[in-house]
Amino acid sequence: MEKQNLFKWKHYQPDVILLTVRWYLRYNLSFRDLVEMMGERGLCMAHTTIMRWVHQYGPELDERVRRHLKLTNDSWRVDETYVKVKGQWTYLYRAVDSEGNTIDFYLSKTRNKQAAKRFFKKALAFSHVSTPRAITVDKNPAYPIAIQELKEEKKMPKGIEVRQSKYLNNIVEQDHRFIKKRLSTMLSLKSFRTAKAIISGIEVMHMIKKKQVYQEVKSVPNQVRFIHQLFGIAS
């Protein structure tokens, strides 16, 4: 999407929109917190306006950042955690490499072999993801079955080692904390579609925080400048 189309008909400048989106996805703030903070800057907006921005630009940010991610290593650590959507528990599949870099994530209504296969296929489709040499999983029996079927379908190399070890998976369980902490402060996720949009934005901000992008974005000003560049906005 071109810049003029992406922000067309918006009543606020693109940098203001991205500021509220970035703050919401990165920090433990509510939409109403952001309304008050923008009010201090002389900007009057409704919390539903910011909510719509997050739903629209969170996935767009995820898509644009993916092109700039560093290559992950070939040792995967895979686990799933629970996320409540519209009062029902859903499953957030996540994978990191042995250095803690996020490989990918996938929100699913089910926790079974089919969901695991969809997650692995999604992860392997990205250019920043190395083909796994070893995949460490927990005791969930769906993972080995899903991996074996993907090998038979020639979607995964046959030589991949599958390890079931809770100790080795501590790194991904610890990485869940940032995502869970941010989601726990939200009142609720109202629908599966909006949950995916918000989580994609939270995950990509977490990747930036972990310095997974090629550009030098160690400081917050550099992170802001990087995001503005992605959307074609002069800092």
Write the SSE topology.
Blueprint: H1 3-6, H2 14-26, H3 31-39, H4 47-66, E1 75-85, E2 88-97, E3 102-108, H5 113-124, E4 134-137, H6 142-152, E5 161-164, H7 170-184, H8 192-209, H9 220-230
Parallel strand pairs: 1-4, 4-5
Antiparallel strand pairs: 1-2, 2-3
Helix pairs in contact: 2-4, 3-4, 4-8, 5-6, 7-8
Q: Into which percentage range does the β-strand content fall? A: 15-25%
- Secondary-structure element order, N to C: HHHHEEEHEHEHHH
Sheet bearing the most strands, described? 5 strands, mixed
**Residue ranges: pLDDT <50 for 5 or more in a row?**
none
**Multimer state:** single chain
Please work out how many helical segments DSSP would assign: 9
The CATH homology group name of the largest domain: Ribonuclease H-like superfamily/Ribonuclease H
Instruction: Tell me the name of the CATH class of the largest domain.
Output: Alpha Beta
Q: Strands across the major sheet, in which order? A: 3-2-1-4-5
Tally of strands: 5
Total domains: 2
- CATH topology group of the largest domain: Nucleotidyltransferase, domain 5
Report the span from N to C terminus: 20 Å
Q: Averaging pLDDT over every residue, what do you get? A: 90
The shape, in one word, is globular
Percent of residues in helices comes to 40-55%
- The computed structural class is alpha/beta
CATH architecture of the largest domain: 2-Layer Sandwich
Pfam families: DDE_Tnp_IS240 (PF13610)
Function: Involved in the transposition of the insertion sequence.
InterPro entries: DDE_dom, Integrase_cat-core, IS_Transposase, RNaseH-like_sf, RNaseH_sf, Transpos_IS6
GO molecular function: DNA binding
